[in-house]
Automatic annotation (TrEMBL):
One Pfam family here: HGTP_anticodon
Cellular component GO terms, alphabetical: cytosol
UniProt keyword Cell division, yes or no: no
Protein name in UniProt: Proline--tRNA ligase
Record's catalysed reaction(s): tRNA(Pro) + L-proline + ATP = L-prolyl-tRNA(Pro) + AMP + diphosphate
Organism: Candidatus Buchananbacteria bacterium RIFCSPHIGHO2_02_FULL_56_16
Keyword field contains Protein biosynthesis: yes
PROSITE patterns: AA_TRNA_LIGASE_II
Amino acid sequence: MLQSTLFGKTQKQPPRDEVSLNARLLTQAGFIDKVTAGAYTYLPLGLAVLNNVKQIVREEMAAIGGQELLMPALQPKELWEKTGRWTDPGPEVMFQFEGRSDRQYGLGWTHEEVITPLVKKFVSSYKDLPLYLYQIQDKFRNEPRAKSGLLRGIEFSMKDLYSFHRDEQDLEAYYQRALQAYLRIFQRCGLEAIVTEASGGSFSKYSHEFQVLTPYGEDVIYHCVQCGYAQNREVTQLMTGAACPKCDGSIAEGKAIEVGNIFQLKTKYAVPFKLEYVDADGTSKPVMMGCYGIGPSRVMGTAVEVHHDDRGIIWPESIAPFRAHLLQLGSSSAVAKRALLVYHKLSSRGISTLFDDRPDVTAGVKFADADLIGIPYRLVVSEKTKANVELKPRRGQTSTLVNQTKLLAALKGKGGELGKQRNVS
Ligand code: ATP
Ligand code: MG
Protein backbone atom coordinates (compact mmCIF):
# COMPACT_ATOMS: atom_id res chain seq x y z
CA MET A 1 0.00 0.00 0.00
CA LEU A 2 1.33 3.42 -0.94
CA GLN A 3 1.20 5.76 2.02
CA SER A 4 0.65 8.70 -0.33
CA THR A 5 -2.77 7.26 -1.18
CA LEU A 6 -3.68 5.82 2.24
CA PHE A 7 -6.92 7.26 3.61
CA GLY A 8 -6.40 8.69 7.08
CA LYS A 9 -3.39 10.70 8.18
CA THR A 10 -1.27 11.01 11.27
CA GLN A 11 -1.77 14.13 13.37
CA LYS A 12 0.92 16.23 15.04
CA GLN A 13 -0.84 16.13 18.40
CA PRO A 14 -3.13 13.63 20.09
CA PRO A 15 -6.80 14.68 20.08
CA ARG A 16 -7.71 17.04 22.94
CA ASP A 17 -11.07 15.42 23.67
CA GLU A 18 -9.68 11.94 24.42
CA VAL A 19 -8.35 10.95 27.82
CA SER A 20 -7.58 7.27 27.25
CA LEU A 21 -4.19 6.31 25.94
CA ASN A 22 -5.53 3.89 23.32
CA ALA A 23 -7.87 6.48 21.78
CA ARG A 24 -5.21 9.19 21.83
CA LEU A 25 -2.62 7.03 20.07
CA LEU A 26 -5.02 5.31 17.66
CA THR A 27 -6.54 8.64 16.59
CA GLN A 28 -3.23 10.45 16.29
CA ALA A 29 -1.77 7.59 14.22
CA GLY A 30 -4.77 7.48 11.85
CA PHE A 31 -6.40 4.18 12.88
CA ILE A 32 -9.76 5.42 14.20
CA ASP A 33 -11.98 8.49 14.14
CA LYS A 34 -14.47 9.35 16.86
CA VAL A 35 -18.07 9.85 15.75
CA THR A 36 -19.38 10.31 19.28
CA ALA A 37 -18.24 9.14 22.73
CA GLY A 38 -18.02 5.34 22.52
CA ALA A 39 -18.53 5.03 18.74
CA TYR A 40 -15.65 5.09 16.29
CA THR A 41 -15.01 4.73 12.58
CA TYR A 42 -12.25 2.27 11.79
CA LEU A 43 -10.09 3.82 9.10
CA PRO A 44 -8.25 1.44 6.73
CA LEU A 45 -5.31 0.97 9.14
CA GLY A 46 -7.63 0.39 12.10
CA LEU A 47 -9.89 -2.00 10.23
CA ALA A 48 -6.85 -4.05 9.21
CA VAL A 49 -5.94 -4.54 12.88
CA LEU A 50 -9.52 -5.33 13.91
CA ASN A 51 -9.82 -7.87 11.09
CA ASN A 52 -6.56 -9.52 12.15
CA VAL A 53 -7.92 -9.94 15.69
CA LYS A 54 -11.19 -11.35 14.33
CA GLN A 55 -9.26 -13.77 12.11
CA ILE A 56 -7.39 -15.17 15.12
CA VAL A 57 -10.70 -15.49 16.98
CA ARG A 58 -12.29 -17.31 14.00
CA GLU A 59 -9.39 -19.77 13.77
CA GLU A 60 -9.61 -20.64 17.45
CA MET A 61 -13.40 -20.92 17.32
CA ALA A 62 -13.10 -23.34 14.39
CA ALA A 63 -10.58 -25.36 16.43
CA ILE A 64 -13.20 -26.00 19.13
CA GLY A 65 -15.98 -26.81 16.68
CA GLY A 66 -17.63 -23.37 16.52
CA GLN A 67 -19.93 -22.70 13.56
CA GLU A 68 -20.28 -19.06 12.57
CA LEU A 69 -23.66 -17.46 11.96
CA LEU A 70 -24.98 -13.90 12.09
CA MET A 71 -28.02 -12.73 14.05
CA PRO A 72 -29.74 -9.36 13.77
CA ALA A 73 -28.68 -6.52 16.06
CA LEU A 74 -32.27 -5.24 15.93
CA GLN A 75 -34.52 -7.29 18.18
CA PRO A 76 -38.21 -7.16 19.12
CA LYS A 77 -39.29 -6.41 22.70
CA GLU A 78 -41.31 -9.65 22.90
CA LEU A 79 -38.20 -11.85 22.99
CA TRP A 80 -36.69 -9.83 25.82
CA GLU A 81 -39.92 -9.88 27.83
CA LYS A 82 -39.65 -13.65 28.01
CA THR A 83 -36.52 -13.40 30.15
CA GLY A 84 -37.47 -10.22 31.97
CA ARG A 85 -34.43 -8.42 30.60
CA TRP A 86 -36.57 -5.87 28.67
CA THR A 87 -37.08 -4.13 32.02
CA ASP A 88 -34.20 -5.49 34.13
CA PRO A 89 -31.57 -4.29 33.26
CA GLY A 90 -33.73 -2.79 30.48
CA PRO A 91 -32.81 0.70 29.18
CA GLU A 92 -30.02 0.85 31.77
CA VAL A 93 -28.05 -1.26 29.26
CA MET A 94 -30.22 -1.61 26.15
CA PHE A 95 -30.98 1.06 23.57
CA GLN A 96 -34.76 0.75 23.17
CA PHE A 97 -37.04 2.55 20.73
CA GLU A 98 -40.29 2.47 18.80
CA GLY A 99 -40.72 1.49 15.16
CA ARG A 100 -43.89 1.65 13.05
CA SER A 101 -47.29 0.55 14.43
CA ASP A 102 -46.10 1.07 18.01
CA ARG A 103 -43.72 -1.88 17.78
CA GLN A 104 -40.91 -1.77 20.32
CA TYR A 105 -37.35 -2.77 19.47
CA GLY A 106 -33.98 -2.86 21.13
CA LEU A 107 -30.39 -3.19 19.95
CA GLY A 108 -28.67 -6.41 20.99
CA TRP A 109 -26.18 -6.11 23.85
CA THR A 110 -26.00 -9.93 24.04
CA HIS A 111 -27.88 -12.58 22.06
CA GLU A 112 -29.35 -15.28 24.34
CA GLU A 113 -32.85 -13.98 23.55
CA VAL A 114 -32.31 -14.62 19.82
CA ILE A 115 -30.16 -17.73 19.78
CA THR A 116 -32.20 -19.76 22.28
CA PRO A 117 -35.48 -19.64 20.26
CA LEU A 118 -33.41 -20.15 17.08
CA VAL A 119 -31.87 -23.37 18.40
CA LYS A 120 -35.28 -24.52 19.63
CA LYS A 121 -36.38 -24.63 15.97
CA PHE A 122 -33.63 -27.13 15.13
CA VAL A 123 -33.01 -29.21 18.25
CA SER A 124 -35.42 -31.85 19.44
CA SER A 125 -33.40 -34.94 20.28
CA TYR A 126 -30.22 -35.72 22.21
CA LYS A 127 -28.82 -36.63 18.79
CA ASP A 128 -28.89 -32.91 17.85
CA LEU A 129 -26.50 -32.06 20.71
CA PRO A 130 -23.92 -30.76 21.45
CA LEU A 131 -23.94 -27.63 19.32
CA TYR A 132 -21.52 -24.68 19.26
CA LEU A 133 -22.63 -21.50 17.49
CA TYR A 134 -20.95 -18.12 17.38
CA GLN A 135 -21.07 -14.78 15.66
CA ILE A 136 -18.87 -11.71 15.41
CA GLN A 137 -21.07 -8.67 15.45
CA ASP A 138 -21.38 -5.17 16.76
CA LYS A 139 -23.08 -4.97 20.15
CA PHE A 140 -24.75 -1.89 21.59
CA ARG A 141 -24.72 -0.93 25.24
CA ASN A 142 -25.92 2.26 26.89
CA GLU A 143 -22.62 2.56 28.78
CA PRO A 144 -22.46 5.27 31.45
CA ARG A 145 -18.70 5.81 31.12
CA ALA A 146 -17.83 5.75 27.42
CA LYS A 147 -14.57 7.65 27.71
CA SER A 148 -12.04 4.85 27.41
CA GLY A 149 -11.75 4.73 23.63
CA LEU A 150 -12.01 1.21 22.24
CA LEU A 151 -12.07 -0.26 25.75
CA ARG A 152 -15.66 0.85 26.37
CA GLY A 153 -17.82 1.51 23.36
CA ILE A 154 -21.55 2.10 23.16
CA GLU A 155 -21.15 0.25 19.85
CA PHE A 156 -18.34 -2.31 19.85
CA SER A 157 -17.31 -5.56 18.26
CA MET A 158 -18.07 -8.77 20.12
CA LYS A 159 -17.55 -12.42 19.36
CA ASP A 160 -20.24 -14.36 21.21
CA LEU A 161 -20.22 -18.12 21.27
CA TYR A 162 -23.12 -20.17 22.67
CA SER A 163 -22.89 -23.84 23.45
CA PHE A 164 -25.77 -26.33 23.90
CA HIS A 165 -25.44 -29.59 25.81
CA ARG A 166 -27.27 -32.64 27.02
CA ASP A 167 -26.02 -32.44 30.58
CA GLU A 168 -23.88 -30.47 32.99
CA GLN A 169 -20.90 -32.77 32.54
CA ASP A 170 -20.77 -32.12 28.81
CA LEU A 171 -21.12 -28.37 29.42
CA GLU A 172 -18.30 -28.43 31.96
CA ALA A 173 -15.97 -30.31 29.57
CA TYR A 174 -16.64 -27.87 26.73
CA TYR A 175 -16.30 -24.89 29.07
CA GLN A 176 -12.76 -26.01 29.85
CA ARG A 177 -11.98 -26.35 26.12
CA ALA A 178 -13.34 -22.85 25.48
CA LEU A 179 -11.26 -21.52 28.37
CA GLN A 180 -8.10 -22.92 26.77
CA ALA A 181 -9.11 -21.53 23.35
CA TYR A 182 -9.52 -18.11 24.94
CA LEU A 183 -6.04 -18.26 26.43
CA ARG A 184 -4.66 -19.12 22.99
CA ILE A 185 -6.53 -16.21 21.39
CA PHE A 186 -5.10 -13.67 23.83
CA GLN A 187 -1.62 -15.12 23.63
CA ARG A 188 -1.75 -14.98 19.82
CA CYS A 189 -2.88 -11.33 20.04
CA GLY A 190 0.18 -10.53 22.16
CA LEU A 191 -1.70 -10.30 25.47
CA GLU A 192 -1.07 -12.14 28.70
CA ALA A 193 -4.52 -12.84 30.13
CA ILE A 194 -5.15 -14.00 33.70
CA VAL A 195 -8.10 -16.33 34.23
CA THR A 196 -10.08 -14.62 37.00
CA GLU A 197 -13.01 -15.89 39.03
CA ALA A 198 -15.89 -13.42 38.98
CA SER A 199 -19.63 -13.10 39.51
CA GLY A 200 -21.86 -13.85 36.54
CA GLY A 201 -23.76 -10.54 36.45
CA SER A 202 -27.14 -10.90 34.74
CA PHE A 203 -26.01 -14.16 33.09
CA SER A 204 -25.10 -16.71 35.73
CA LYS A 205 -24.00 -17.22 39.32
CA TYR A 206 -20.26 -17.16 38.62
CA SER A 207 -18.04 -16.76 35.60
CA HIS A 208 -14.44 -16.62 34.48
CA GLU A 209 -13.00 -13.39 33.21
CA PHE A 210 -9.81 -12.98 31.21
CA GLN A 211 -7.98 -10.00 32.65
CA VAL A 212 -4.92 -8.20 31.28
CA LEU A 213 -2.93 -6.27 33.88
CA THR A 214 -2.31 -2.64 32.94
CA PRO A 215 -2.18 0.55 35.02
CA TYR A 216 -5.14 1.93 33.05
CA GLY A 217 -7.52 -0.99 33.63
CA GLU A 218 -10.98 -0.28 35.07
CA ASP A 219 -11.17 -3.57 36.97
CA VAL A 220 -9.22 -4.52 40.07
CA ILE A 221 -8.13 -8.12 40.50
CA TYR A 222 -6.37 -9.98 43.27
CA HIS A 223 -3.94 -12.46 41.79
CA CYS A 224 -1.33 -14.84 43.13
CA VAL A 225 2.16 -13.83 42.01
CA GLN A 226 3.24 -17.47 42.07
CA CYS A 227 0.50 -19.63 40.52
CA GLY A 228 -1.60 -16.96 38.79
CA TYR A 229 -4.87 -17.83 40.60
CA ALA A 230 -7.06 -14.70 40.54
CA GLN A 231 -10.37 -13.25 41.64
CA ASN A 232 -12.13 -10.03 40.66
CA ARG A 233 -12.44 -7.47 43.51
CA GLU A 234 -16.27 -7.52 43.22
CA VAL A 235 -16.39 -11.07 44.54
CA THR A 236 -13.45 -11.69 46.39
CA GLN A 237 -12.49 -12.28 49.97
CA LEU A 238 -8.82 -11.94 49.04
CA MET A 239 -6.59 -9.05 50.13
CA THR A 240 -3.15 -7.79 49.19
CA GLY A 241 -0.46 -9.79 50.97
CA ALA A 242 -2.87 -12.63 51.87
CA ALA A 243 -1.81 -16.23 51.32
CA CYS A 244 -3.00 -17.72 48.04
CA PRO A 245 -5.78 -20.29 48.62
CA LYS A 246 -4.29 -22.54 45.91
CA CYS A 247 -0.55 -22.51 46.66
CA ASP A 248 1.89 -20.90 49.12
CA GLY A 249 2.34 -17.76 46.99
CA SER A 250 1.11 -14.34 48.05
CA ILE A 251 -1.72 -12.22 46.67
CA ALA A 252 -1.13 -8.93 44.84
CA GLU A 253 -3.64 -6.30 43.72
CA GLY A 254 -3.59 -5.03 40.16
CA LYS A 255 -5.62 -2.92 37.75
CA ALA A 256 -6.74 -4.89 34.73
CA ILE A 257 -8.84 -4.84 31.57
CA GLU A 258 -11.43 -7.59 31.07
CA VAL A 259 -10.91 -8.82 27.51
CA GLY A 260 -13.10 -11.91 27.70
CA ASN A 261 -15.74 -13.54 29.88
CA ILE A 262 -17.21 -17.04 29.88
CA PHE A 263 -20.35 -18.25 31.68
CA GLN A 264 -22.14 -21.49 32.43
CA LEU A 265 -25.73 -20.41 31.81
CA LYS A 266 -27.01 -23.92 32.51
CA THR A 267 -30.81 -23.82 32.07
CA LYS A 268 -31.30 -20.11 32.74
CA TYR A 269 -32.41 -19.31 29.16
CA ALA A 270 -33.56 -22.78 28.14
CA VAL A 271 -36.36 -22.63 30.74
CA PRO A 272 -38.11 -19.36 29.65
CA PHE A 273 -37.85 -20.37 25.99
CA LYS A 274 -38.72 -24.03 26.69
CA LEU A 275 -35.64 -25.22 24.84
CA GLU A 276 -35.87 -28.95 25.52
CA TYR A 277 -34.70 -32.17 23.97
CA VAL A 278 -35.83 -35.76 24.23
CA ASP A 279 -33.14 -37.87 25.87
CA ALA A 280 -32.27 -41.49 25.03
CA ASP A 281 -34.66 -42.70 27.76
CA GLY A 282 -37.56 -40.82 26.15
CA THR A 283 -37.85 -38.06 28.76
CA SER A 284 -37.87 -34.35 27.94
CA LYS A 285 -35.08 -32.27 29.49
CA PRO A 286 -33.98 -28.63 29.31
CA VAL A 287 -30.86 -27.98 27.22
CA MET A 288 -27.75 -26.88 29.15
CA MET A 289 -26.11 -23.73 27.79
CA GLY A 290 -22.82 -21.86 28.06
CA CYS A 291 -21.90 -18.46 26.63
CA TYR A 292 -18.49 -17.07 25.85
CA GLY A 293 -17.71 -13.45 24.94
CA ILE A 294 -14.68 -11.63 23.61
CA GLY A 295 -14.46 -8.01 22.46
CA PRO A 296 -12.14 -7.83 19.40
CA SER A 297 -12.27 -4.01 19.53
CA ARG A 298 -11.42 -4.03 23.24
CA VAL A 299 -8.59 -6.48 22.49
CA MET A 300 -7.27 -3.99 19.92
CA GLY A 301 -7.45 -1.11 22.43
CA THR A 302 -5.83 -3.26 25.12
CA ALA A 303 -2.95 -4.16 22.79
CA VAL A 304 -2.24 -0.44 22.45
CA GLU A 305 -2.50 0.13 26.21
CA VAL A 306 0.04 -2.64 26.79
CA HIS A 307 2.35 -2.23 23.77
CA HIS A 308 3.52 1.34 23.25
CA ASP A 309 6.30 3.73 24.18
CA ASP A 310 6.51 7.52 24.28
CA ARG A 311 6.82 7.64 20.49
CA GLY A 312 3.79 5.56 19.60
CA ILE A 313 2.23 2.14 19.20
CA ILE A 314 4.28 -1.10 19.03
CA TRP A 315 1.92 -3.64 17.41
CA PRO A 316 2.29 -7.33 18.18
CA GLU A 317 3.26 -8.88 14.83
CA SER A 318 0.14 -11.06 14.69
CA ILE A 319 -2.30 -8.15 14.57
CA ALA A 320 -0.20 -5.38 12.97
CA PRO A 321 -1.84 -3.68 9.95
CA PHE A 322 1.31 -4.39 7.90
CA ARG A 323 4.44 -6.37 8.54
CA ALA A 324 6.90 -3.82 7.13
CA HIS A 325 6.99 -0.05 6.83
CA LEU A 326 9.29 0.99 4.00
CA LEU A 327 10.50 4.59 4.08
CA GLN A 328 11.93 6.22 1.00
CA LEU A 329 14.21 9.04 2.15
CA GLY A 330 15.19 11.47 -0.59
CA SER A 331 13.61 11.84 -3.97
CA SER A 332 16.47 11.31 -6.42
CA SER A 333 15.43 9.00 -9.21
CA ALA A 334 18.02 6.42 -8.10
CA VAL A 335 16.57 6.24 -4.55
CA ALA A 336 12.98 6.22 -5.81
CA LYS A 337 13.77 3.38 -8.20
CA ARG A 338 15.51 1.29 -5.54
CA ALA A 339 12.73 1.83 -3.00
CA LEU A 340 10.08 0.83 -5.52
CA LEU A 341 12.05 -2.31 -6.36
CA VAL A 342 12.22 -3.29 -2.68
CA TYR A 343 8.49 -2.63 -2.35
CA HIS A 344 7.64 -4.84 -5.32
CA LYS A 345 9.95 -7.57 -4.12
CA LEU A 346 8.39 -7.64 -0.65
CA SER A 347 4.88 -7.54 -2.11
CA SER A 348 5.60 -10.38 -4.50
CA ARG A 349 6.82 -12.47 -1.55
CA GLY A 350 3.57 -11.83 0.31
CA ILE A 351 5.17 -9.52 2.89
CA SER A 352 2.57 -6.84 3.47
CA THR A 353 4.22 -3.45 3.28
CA LEU A 354 3.21 0.15 3.82
CA PHE A 355 5.44 2.13 1.48
CA ASP A 356 6.06 5.70 2.60
CA ASP A 357 6.53 7.14 -0.86
CA ARG A 358 5.29 10.59 0.12
CA PRO A 359 7.21 13.29 -1.67
CA ASP A 360 7.93 16.57 0.16
CA VAL A 361 7.83 14.92 3.60
CA THR A 362 11.02 15.21 5.63
CA ALA A 363 12.97 12.22 6.94
CA GLY A 364 12.21 13.39 10.49
CA VAL A 365 8.47 13.31 9.88
CA LYS A 366 8.64 9.91 8.19
CA PHE A 367 10.58 8.45 11.12
CA ALA A 368 8.19 9.97 13.65
CA ASP A 369 5.15 8.66 11.74
CA ALA A 370 6.64 5.18 11.51
CA ASP A 371 7.17 5.11 15.28
CA LEU A 372 3.67 6.44 15.89
CA ILE A 373 1.96 3.90 13.57
CA GLY A 374 3.98 1.07 15.08
CA ILE A 375 4.42 -1.44 12.24
CA PRO A 376 6.83 -4.20 13.45
CA TYR A 377 9.67 -3.66 10.96
CA ARG A 378 10.92 -0.31 9.65
CA LEU A 379 12.93 -0.35 6.41
CA VAL A 380 14.81 2.61 5.02
CA VAL A 381 16.06 3.16 1.50
CA SER A 382 18.14 6.34 1.07
CA GLU A 383 21.21 7.66 -0.76
CA LYS A 384 23.27 6.24 2.11
CA THR A 385 21.92 2.68 1.99
CA LYS A 386 22.94 2.17 -1.65
CA ALA A 387 21.79 -1.30 -2.77
CA ASN A 388 21.06 -2.34 0.83
CA VAL A 389 18.18 -1.64 3.15
CA GLU A 390 18.32 -0.42 6.73
CA LEU A 391 16.21 -2.69 8.91
CA LYS A 392 14.99 -1.81 12.39
CA PRO A 393 12.41 -3.64 14.50
CA ARG A 394 9.95 -1.18 16.10
CA ARG A 395 10.61 -2.90 19.41
CA GLY A 396 14.42 -2.68 19.15
CA GLN A 397 16.98 0.08 19.45
CA THR A 398 19.44 -0.71 16.69
CA SER A 399 19.18 -0.78 12.93
CA THR A 400 21.24 -2.98 10.63
CA LEU A 401 22.15 -2.63 7.00
CA VAL A 402 21.12 -5.79 5.15
CA ASN A 403 21.07 -6.98 1.57
CA GLN A 404 17.79 -8.09 0.01
CA THR A 405 18.31 -11.78 0.69
CA LYS A 406 18.82 -11.12 4.39
CA LEU A 407 15.91 -8.71 4.39
CA LEU A 408 13.51 -11.30 2.99
CA ALA A 409 14.77 -13.90 5.44
CA ALA A 410 14.22 -11.51 8.35
CA LEU A 411 10.70 -10.58 7.26
CA LYS A 412 9.42 -14.03 6.38
CA GLY A 413 6.16 -14.81 8.03
CA LYS A 414 2.60 -13.66 7.94
CA GLY A 415 1.55 -10.28 6.60
CA GLY A 416 -1.29 -8.05 7.77
CA GLU A 417 -4.81 -8.11 6.38
CA LEU A 418 -4.78 -4.76 4.60
CA GLY A 419 -1.51 -5.49 2.87
CA LYS A 420 -2.87 -8.81 1.64
CA GLN A 421 -5.84 -7.11 0.01
CA ARG A 422 -3.96 -4.30 -1.64
CA ASN A 423 -0.38 -5.32 -2.02
CA VAL A 424 0.76 -3.32 -5.00
CA SER A 425 -0.89 -0.18 -6.27
P1 ATP B 1 -17.49 -4.67 31.62
O1 ATP B 1 -17.54 -5.32 32.98
O2 ATP B 1 -16.13 -4.21 31.23
O3 ATP B 1 -18.55 -3.64 31.43
P2 ATP B 1 -19.02 -6.85 30.76
O4 ATP B 1 -18.65 -7.81 31.82
O5 ATP B 1 -20.32 -6.15 30.86
O6 ATP B 1 -17.84 -5.80 30.56
P3 ATP B 1 -19.50 -9.00 28.91
O7 ATP B 1 -20.97 -8.95 28.86
O8 ATP B 1 -18.84 -10.05 29.70
O9 ATP B 1 -18.93 -7.57 29.32
O10 ATP B 1 -18.98 -8.98 27.40
C1 ATP B 1 -18.03 -9.87 26.85
C2 ATP B 1 -16.82 -9.14 26.34
O11 ATP B 1 -17.18 -8.07 25.46
C3 ATP B 1 -16.03 -8.44 27.44
O12 ATP B 1 -15.18 -9.34 28.08
C4 ATP B 1 -15.27 -7.39 26.64
O13 ATP B 1 -14.16 -7.96 25.99
C5 ATP B 1 -16.29 -6.99 25.59
N1 ATP B 1 -17.02 -5.79 26.00
C6 ATP B 1 -18.04 -5.69 26.88
N2 ATP B 1 -18.50 -4.44 26.97
C7 ATP B 1 -17.75 -3.70 26.11
C8 ATP B 1 -17.75 -2.34 25.73
N3 ATP B 1 -18.62 -1.48 26.25
N4 ATP B 1 -16.84 -1.93 24.81
C9 ATP B 1 -15.95 -2.80 24.27
N5 ATP B 1 -15.92 -4.11 24.59
C10 ATP B 1 -16.79 -4.56 25.48
MG1 MG C 1 -17.89 -9.47 31.55
